[in-house]
């Protein structure tokens, strides 16, 4: 009996580390420690469960083969997880988070599949199992699609005709199917497996039509889904640590999702039910007039060298080109010559909120050089040169001026108030939202085509000679 | 039906307390997080829901050793859960490592 209490206390400690960890994660100074605390609590809960858990009705047995299998599974997962996490490039982190999230969802779904048979006759427990199974599966397949979209295996949003209606119908059917299983309690597992497959399909349908720029919101949402699925598992086992952990992530994840939506100034329903229609993109493309102006590297260098203030707007293109180090070099060089340089960070620059901060921090750019949107926008009027590197949608004036644009209403960086705007892009391809950018056609704007890393390196060497 | 629901709620009342209080804790704890930390926070939260692995371990412990199919499924679930936990915490740590203060 005392053994059970030891495990209960371990779970209590683990739950507390989760709360404290999350709290510390929301402050820059304590974030890293917070993550480690939570990881410690997690390790404690896992080890405790392996050696101390016992089912109330005595189902639990510890044959060596089972313990070996469990430890082997943990070993495989640890090595694979550790290697992927430590080898991955900074640019690939968002999709990796999505993938790990999917793994958690799959884990919850499998638990549901396995526990179904053991709980026939208990309506409450079955409802919990089926709910966890559905949410876990949706989270799994949805996360995999989000992963594929972010690593650009799946490039264009796929348009299924009237997918809103289709998705709603499928969702309702899925819930009814789940409810039916809880009600009828078929003894054969076939229907449950069918439900599992059906939920996987729904997860795919749910994410596939959502445009790339909205993917961070989707990942955050799926993240809270997996939290919920874990919590259902905790409810089933009367397991407090799963319950607290799951619910914490579920509610914190929901708040985070809403915060991200707020940063993009769009309601969540708008993200899910889609405003990034193909039609709107076509219509805004038609209005483009004016011409594109090229600028050479030496002209850019001169312009920057004699500027008083330069604002750099980094975007995903910078991340892809791995140009964060060379841009820092450029910044230092300009500062040496008395030019004031800051970075303007749009809340959703890159593929995730905070993505740019993480990336620039990697190359030792100091905190106070990263200025958030609300603070930098009034400063553009006194800025001589804005250098946009691989960013597009976050500087698209259509968000303010064109109600038909899919990004209309999203707050943007007001770079057009600056004296000169230099845009570095690889080509004239549209941004992640798939829409044209009128900024590029403005007389104040010059285009500096080429791969960000190569162009910036040349810019640095040009500046050094001046 | 009504009495069944009532019994279910009554039997699980402690769990329901935990759920409701945890919802509020989750909301409060990340009330005002700077945009800089959105990604690491999401990633950290992602690792925490990996606690679902505890459920996978419990399933395996409760499965008779002869049931090979169930053990195999459980094995997969534990691998997935571990990936979520270890990968999640490791990625978060890598992100946060870059926030080190430098003067």
UniProtKB/TrEMBL annotation, chain A:
Pfam families, A to Z: PNTB
Please give the start and end residues of each transmembrane region: 6-24, 36-53, 65-84, 96-114, 126-148, 160-183, 189-210, 217-237, 243-261
EC top class named in words? translocase
**Which part of the chain is the NADP transhydrogenase beta-like domain?**
9-461
What keywords appear on the UniProt entry? Answer: Cell inner membrane, Cell membrane, Membrane, NAD, NADP, Translocase, Transmembrane, Transmembrane helix
- Entry's EC annotation: 7.1.1.1
A molecular function (GO) held by this record is:
NADP binding
Q: Which GO terms describe its cellular component?
A: plasma membrane
Q: Which reaction does it catalyse?
A: NAD(+) + NADPH + H(+)(in) = NADH + NADP(+) + H(+)(out)
UniProt membrane topology term? Multi-pass membrane protein
Q: What is its main location?
A: membrane
Q: Does the keyword Zinc-finger apply?
A: no
Give the SUPFAM superfamilies listed for this entry. Answer: DHS-like NAD/FAD-binding domain (SSF52467)
The compartments listed are: Cell inner membrane
Q: Which family does it belong to?
A: Belongs to the PNT beta subunit family.
Described by its record, this protein's role is as follows:
The transhydrogenation between NADH and NADP is coupled to respiration and ATP hydrolysis and functions as a proton pump across the membrane.
Q: What is this protein called?
A: NAD(P) transhydrogenase subunit beta
Q: Which organism is it from?
A: Emticicia aquatilis
The primary gene name is pntB
TrEMBL record, chain B:
Keywords in alphabetical order = Cell inner membrane, Cell membrane, Membrane, NAD, NADP, Translocase, Transmembrane, Transmembrane helix
Q: Please give, as recorded in its UniProt entry, the membrane topology of this protein.
A: Multi-pass membrane protein
Q: Which Pfam families match?
A: PNTB_4TM (PF12769)
Q: Name one GO cellular component term.
A: plasma membrane
Instruction: Give the highest taxon in the source lineage.
Output: Bacteria
GO BP annotations of the record are: NADPH regeneration
Q: Where in the cell is it found?
A: Cell inner membrane
Annotated GO molecular function terms are: NADP binding; proton-translocating NAD(P)+ transhydrogenase activity
Its function, per the record, reads: The transhydrogenation between NADH and NADP is coupled to respiration and ATP hydrolysis and functions as a proton pump across the membrane.
Q: Describe the location of the NAD(P) transhydrogenase alpha subunit C-terminal domain by residue ranges.
A: 15-101
* Source species: Emticicia aquatilis
Keyword NAD among record annotations: yes
Which EC number(s) does the record attach to this protein?
Answer: 7.1.1.1
What protein name applies here?
Answer: proton-translocating NAD(P)(+) transhydrogenase
User: Does Transmembrane show up as a keyword for this record?
Assistant: yes
Positions of transmembrane segments: 12-31, 43-62, 68-92
Q: Which reaction does it catalyse?
A: NAD(+) + NADPH + H(+)(in) = NADH + NADP(+) + H(+)(out)
């Amino acid at each position: 009996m005392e053994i059970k209490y030891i495990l209960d206390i371990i779970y209590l400690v683990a739950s507390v580390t989760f709360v404290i960890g999350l709290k510390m994660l929301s402050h820059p100074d304590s974030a890293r420690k917070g993550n480690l605390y939570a990881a410690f609590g997690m390790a404690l809960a896992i080890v405790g469960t392996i050696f101390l858990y016992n089912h109330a009705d005595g189902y639990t047995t510890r044959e060596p083969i089972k313990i070996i299998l469990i430890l082997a599974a943990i070993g495989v997962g640890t090595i694979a997880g550790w290697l992927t996490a430590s080898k991955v490039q900074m640019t690939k982190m968002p999709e990796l988070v999505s993938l790990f999230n999917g793994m958690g969802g799959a884990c919850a779904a499998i638990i549901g599949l396995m526990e179904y048979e053991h709980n026939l006759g208990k309506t409450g427990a079955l409802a919990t199992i089926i709910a966890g199974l559905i949410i876990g599966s949706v989270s799994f397949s949805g996360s995999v699609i989000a992963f594929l979209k972010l690593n650009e295996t799946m490039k264009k949003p796929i348009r299924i005709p009237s997918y809103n209606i289709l998705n709603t119908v499928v969702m309702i059917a899925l819930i009814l199917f789940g409810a039916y299983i809880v009600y009828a309690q078929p003894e054969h597992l076939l229907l449950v497996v069918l439900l599992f497959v059906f939920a996987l399909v729904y997860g795919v349908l749910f994410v596939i039509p959502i445009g790339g720029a909205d993917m961070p919101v989707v990942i955050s949402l799926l993240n809270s889904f997996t939290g919920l699925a874990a919590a259902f598992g905790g409810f089933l086992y009367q397991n407090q640590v799963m319950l607290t952990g799951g619910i914490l992530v579920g509610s914190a994840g929901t708040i985070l999702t809403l915060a991200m939506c707020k940063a993009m100034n769009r309601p969540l329903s708008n993200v899910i039910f889609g405003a990034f229609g193909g039609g709107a993109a076509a219509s805004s493309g038609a209005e483009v007039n004016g011409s594109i102006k090229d600028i050479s590297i030496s002209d850019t260098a001169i312009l920057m060298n004699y500027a008083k203030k330069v604002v750099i707007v980094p975007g995903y293109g910078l991340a892809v080109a791995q140009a964060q180090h060379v841009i820092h070099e450029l910044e230092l060089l300009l500062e040496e010559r008395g030019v004031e340089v800051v970075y303007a960070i749009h809340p959703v620059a890159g593929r995730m909120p905070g993505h740019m901060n993480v990336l620039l921090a990697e190359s030792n750019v100091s905190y106070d050089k990263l200025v958030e949107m609300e603070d930098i926008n009034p400063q553009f009027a006194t800025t001589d040169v804005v250098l946009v590197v691989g960013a597009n949608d976050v500087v698209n004036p259509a968000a303010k001026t064109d109600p038909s644009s899919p990004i209309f209403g999203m707050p943007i960086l007001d770079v057009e108030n600056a004296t000169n705007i230099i845009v570095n892009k690889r080509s004239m391809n549209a941004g992640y939202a798939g829409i044209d950018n009128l900024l590029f056609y403005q007389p104040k704007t010059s285009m500096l085509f080429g791969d960000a890393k190569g162009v910036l390196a040349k810019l640095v060497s040009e500046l050094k000679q001046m | 039906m009504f009495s069944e629901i009532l019994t279910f709620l009554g039997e699980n009342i402690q769990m329901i307390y935990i759920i409701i209080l945890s919802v509020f804790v989750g909301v409060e704890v990340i009330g005002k997080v700077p945009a800089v930390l959105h990604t690491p926070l999401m990633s950290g939260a992602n690792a925490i829901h990996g606690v679902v692995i505890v459920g996978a371990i419990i399933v395996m412990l409760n499965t008779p050793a002869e049931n090979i199919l169930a053990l195999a499924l459980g094995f997969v679930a534990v691998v997935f859960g571990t990936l979520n936990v270890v990968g999640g915490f490791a990625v978060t740590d890598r992100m946060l490592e870059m926030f080190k203060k430098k003067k």
